[in-house]
Amino acid sequence: MAELDITAEIRDLRKTMDSVSAVVDLPKLAAEIAQLEEQAGVANLWDNPDVAQKVTSALSHKQAQLKRVSEAIGRIEDLELLAEMANAEQDSAAQAEVRQELISIQKVVAELEVQTLLNNEYDERSAVITIRAGAGGDDATDFAEMLMRMYLRYAEKHGYKRNVLDISYAEGAGIKSATFEVEAPFAYGNLSVEAGTHRLVRMSPFNSAGKRQTSFAAVEVVPLIEQTDAIDIPDADIRVDVFRSSGPGGQSVNTTDSAVRITHLPTGIVVSCQNEKSQPQNKASAMRVLQSRLLEIRRREEEAHKKQLAGDATASWGDQMRSYVLAPYQMVKDLRTNFEVNNPDAVFDGDLDGFITAAIRWRKQAVAN
Fold first, then answer.
1. What is the pTM of this model?
2. DSSP three-state, residue 358
């Protein structure tokens, strides 16, 4: 029986993990964890809930990061030993298990490598995603709902917490818009590359002639606001309207005016929330989303100012960043990275890792150039 030789693969994994460890700076990370543990152990920590939440959240995230890196290094060492044992015993079943473990570790290490590229100010945050139907009538509103399900499935597959805040249903099929949170470390850093205009090409199920239809939907991704962020919104700058929550087709799902719509008068931003049971809860959720969007506006203004000072005239990403083609052929292609797959069903079921990884690398390279 032939020996299983994965020497080159293990060498590549170790090389990548050396780079990851250097960027993460494990001794510094361990020191930060020790400092946060000391702060978390203070008896009166929760006298200031805002500070307590920031400390415990930072501690949990850094502990998880250290655990992932340490476990990956340990798994690589164990893999080499397992391969030696399988070869020594001439055990084909054991060799097959080693190959599966190799594939699993390569995926984990690749994710860790990409995470080292997420070093912008808000990349570690959770994300708020808003999807809006564009041109294309019923196909566009149906497409918007397909995208919402795609991102919710992506989050579900990764074990991320999802919280749908607001859905505006279309009169025909699908949705006009939806806003939801994806709560997980680096959710914003990963999903921020999904922002832009998405295009769907298919044989329209809403056209009696069965003609091919092109429709569009816009995806907005902003970092979730934290209680410690300084976003001051004067009462005079907002208008708060309350209304009755509704479901598909306008069917009443709530007998009280618990839904809340907040309009930020200086910018014209409108945020609605009807998912919570009470008006105060909906208002708090809507204010959090409004603050997140204002935070993103501030970040973009700061970036634009920095580029102006640096003389960088590079245009932002094009409006159309990804095409989903269902007819006459099957393909999903990112127009920035040229990454493509021929299985749209898997993509719409949340298989976005390849697109996200390619886009993060592309963005980093674009900034470097």
1. 0.71
2. helix
Exposure of 64 by Cβ count < 10 A (0-12 exposed, 13-18 middle, 19+ buried)?
A: exposed
* pLDDT at residue 275, rounded to an integer: 82
Beta bridge partners of 349: none
- Select from 95, 115, 135 the last residue of a domain: 115
Alpha-helical segments (H) within the chain: 7-24, 26-40, 49-89, 92-115, 137-157, 187-191, 279-310, 344-348, 353-368
Are 106 and 9 contacting, i.e. CB atoms less than 8 angstroms apart?
Answer: yes
User: What is the number of other CB atoms lying within 10 angstroms of the CB of residue 80?
Assistant: 15
What is the rounded CA–CA span in Å between residue 271 and residue 221? 14
Burial of residue 149 (CB within 10 Å: 0-12, 13-18, 19+) is middle
In this predicted structure, what is the pLDDT of residue 317? 34
Q: Which of 115, 137, 159 is the last residue of a domain?
A: 115
Does the pLDDT of residue 254 top 60, yes or no? no
Looking at the domain assignment, is residue 299 inside a domain? yes
Q: Rounded to the nearest 5 degrees, what angle is found at the Cα of 158, between the Cα atoms of 157 and 160?
A: 110
